[in-house]
Amino acid sequence: MVFVFNIDYMNLSFQGNNIAAINDWELAHNLQDITFGEHSLTTIADHAFIYSAKSLQKLIFSSTNLTSLPWALMDLSSLQYLRWDSSHVLTWNTTILASIGPSLKTLSLSKLTTPIFPPDWLKLLPKLETLEIYGVAFGQLSSKPLDPPASHIRRLVFTDSNLTKIPQEMFTFFPDLTSLNLASNSISDLSNLKDLKISRNLSKLYMGNNHIDNIGPLFYLTGIEGLDISGNRICDHEHIPYALIPNENSLSYLDLSKNCLTQIPHLLFMTELKELRLYYNNISTASSGSLPLSLINLDLSVNLMTTIPEYISKLSNLHSLYLSYNKIKSIVKFEFPSTLLKLDISGNDIEVIPSLQFSNNISNLTHMFLTGNPIKTIADDAFSNLHELSYLDLDRTHLVRLPPALLALNKLNHLYLPNTLTCSCDDMAFTTWYQNVTHRDGKCDGTDLSLKLDQLPGQCPMS
């Protein structure tokens, strides 16, 4: 069967079908993005992309039955992104590589079976900036050192490849990397970092989901702006500050999530740190460690804290604070930073919401998540300072009545309440207020909240 696509869409996706062949002149004109995914494609005619020769920029082949690059790529003059994954056999055709080389900027290869890389194949892709390799042994990239090295590669992703250490050849092959992603390998020892000739331009390092328990050797890196060491085996918080000292004036993003830390490390000296992720650890001592005043986003969710660390009150640049799924029992007397825009404290053990306190008695909070707490009581003036709040989630709490505190929220447009509420004529004030809330969910007396409030005026006597 022949499929003729003469529509004028910019993007086209073939996902999960039985198309075995794409013939010449079948595809639409001026396509920019084509995805072939999870189907039995075995053949692409030599001029299948002819109508998009100058416009096609992104091309993805995922889980097809193709065994080599199609000659149809020879027609493309603007291809910038090529992804090829889950292929049974792949033999690189150097003629085709040389043809797409002048425009290709990103090449992504994943789960290739018996890949055959010709010598110096990266020379054929002189504009390539990003190389992503998933599930391929590093030694298969080239049978000999690249000559000259691929200095045009700036971003290298090399994951799921069973690396046990960072190979020196990686920086020999790619001497000018700015970003290196070695996540999901089997790296446990970083001690060879001091001997590696690390790119002086390296600013982002991703080492998540390895077997690392000590990041001390990171001391030999400087100028790092982003560091991800999540999903490892880091339990000792005391060595972390030492490892980060050389990057105290450069590091802006640090991910220590999904480890086994029991305390917050001392990070006050990190003067440029903007985002810190510590979720999914075993932190129980809220008085431990210290945090830099430069923080904008802080994630301490899924830990074991029973109180909020007091020094968070002093984070005068903080915009987002995530404290969900700890064991926090009370937020009485805690002063949140006035700069805070988003507060997630869901899934804790809070029963009472007091009048929320903010520094300088000013709140810029727009989003607050309280869902999943056993909240029974909300003070009438709890939200009196929240003049900018637009999103409030009180679902899965133990509330049984509409809290009068809601009436102070004049800019609220998203409200989520539990399905266990009871409404009466005492709630008449809500019948006009709630109409300004665009998105609302919850039930009163087993009936949709909006419907129940609409019925109240007809059920309640005029005063």
UniProtKB/TrEMBL annotation:
It comes from the Eukaryota. Keywords: Carboxypeptidase, Hydrolase, Leucine-rich repeat, Protease, Repeat. InterPro entries: Leu-rich_rpt, Leu-rich_rpt_typical-subtyp, LRR_5, LRR_dom_sf, SLRP. SMART domains: LRR_BAC, LRR_SD22, LRR_TYP. One of its GO terms (molecular function) is carboxypeptidase activity. PANTHER family: AGAP008170-PA, INSULIN-LIKE GROWTH FACTOR-BINDING PROTEIN COMPLEX ACID LABILE SUBUNIT. This is Carboxypeptidase N subunit 2. It comes from Aplysia californica. The gene is LOC101863242.
